[in-house]
């Protein structure tokens, strides 16, 4: 029996290792955050429907700020619509801690306010049953 309800929210946090930096300034590509959105969507499906589900589509993706190696990023998925087999999700990604290589190689700080870096809308599908 499905437990999918509007408002069901799942969040993950992850440290972004320096091995994921692809660009000058230790920038990480946007695909990294999209992969995290896929992970959090999978947990939403497991919690709501007892199945990993399948990601069907994104209807909107906005990259608002950069993600850098050394950051701690939090991603969230919220169910916004429940269909027979589909669920619409709103995704958000925030940097909650940021590396400070200007101070030392291992310096970092907790941000006073999380910095929204990416938001998206997507649809997942789960088996009938």
Describe how the helices and strands are arranged.
Elements: E1 9-15, E2 21-23, E3 27-28, H1 30-49, E4 54-63, E5 67-68, E6 72-82, E7 86-99, E8 108-125
Core attributes:
129 residues; five-stranded antiparallel β-sheet; three-stranded antiparallel β-sheet; elongated
Strand order of the largest sheet: 1-6-7-8-4
- End-to-end distance: 7 Å
**How many structural units, i.e. domains?**
1
How confident overall, as mean pLDDT? Answer: 94
- CATH topological fold name: Thiol Ester Dehydrase, Chain A
In CATH terms, the superfamily is Hotdog Thioesterase
Unreliable parts: none
Instruction: Give the overall form.
Output: elongated
**CATH class identity:** Alpha Beta
Q: Which value, in Å, is the CA radius of gyration?
A: 16 Å
Number of helices: 1
SSE string: EEEHEEEEE
Report the strand count: 8
Going by CATH, the architecture would be: Roll
Share of residues in helices = 10-25%
Relative strand content? over 45%
- Describe the biggest sheet? 5 strands, antiparallel
- Decide which structural class fits the backbone: alpha+beta
């Amino acid at each position: 029996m499905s437990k999918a309800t509007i408002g069901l929210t799942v969040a993950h946090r992850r440290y972004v290792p320096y091995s994921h930096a692809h660009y000058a300034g230790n920038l990480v590509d946007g695909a990294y955050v999209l992969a995290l959105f896929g992970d959090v969507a999978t947990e939403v499906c497991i919690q709501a429907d007892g199945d990993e589900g399948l990601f069907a589509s994104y209807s909107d993706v906005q990259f608002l700020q950069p993600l850098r190696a050394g950051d701690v990023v939090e991603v969230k998925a919220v169910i916004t619509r429940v269909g027979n087999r589909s669920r619409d999700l709103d995704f958000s990604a925030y940097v909650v801690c940021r590396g400070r290589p200007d101070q030392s190689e291992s310096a970092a700080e907790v941000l006073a306010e999380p910095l929204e870096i990416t938001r998206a809308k997507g649809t997942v599908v789960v088996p009938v049953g």
